[in-house]
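Blinded run. Sample ID left blank on purpose so nobody reads anything into the name before looking at the predicted structure. Input follows.
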Amino acid sequence: HRSDMTIVALTYFQDRFLAISDSRISWRKGAKLEKFAKLFSHKYHFTSGHPAANPPKSFTGELGLAFAGSTLFGLAFSNMFARTISAMHSFDDTEAPTFAAFGRIANYCANVLSGYVQDKDQCFEVLIFGFAPKTGEATVIHLRLAPGPDMNGVEVSLQSKPALDDEIASIGTGAKHLP
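Blinded prediction complete.
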């Protein structure tokens, strides 16, 4: 058993998500803290239309977010993402935000942080999950900030896909132990 292993697992069934994680923070020589949240619920608020013409359309909801890897950078990402989605506005007469928009915001936040990452110990992975505001489709975004080729710099990768019944998405060093 490794003291520095972390795992977050997410599944979708019966029209709901179930996410679990360990709660340990580790650093090079073992566990430092045993009770630390790696799962969050972030509220989003989106308005559209010109505020002077009519009252803008308004949409609110929640997204789940889970991270594994660097606690400092995972929390910085979570906070930046949460602040951004809490006050979105489009001057176009947009119906509702799409999950693709949440993916673009997540990608932007990770790219901002990538300039501060100095080594592989500061990399992280994130699962963002929830229901698309307009369609209600259950969706999962997997974002990864990992060392670049030959360990030069870092790369941000992002995948978004519909959540399928009983499929497990997992992140962290312990993810390899799941089916």
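Unblinding after everyone has recorded impressions. The longest helix spans residues 99-114.
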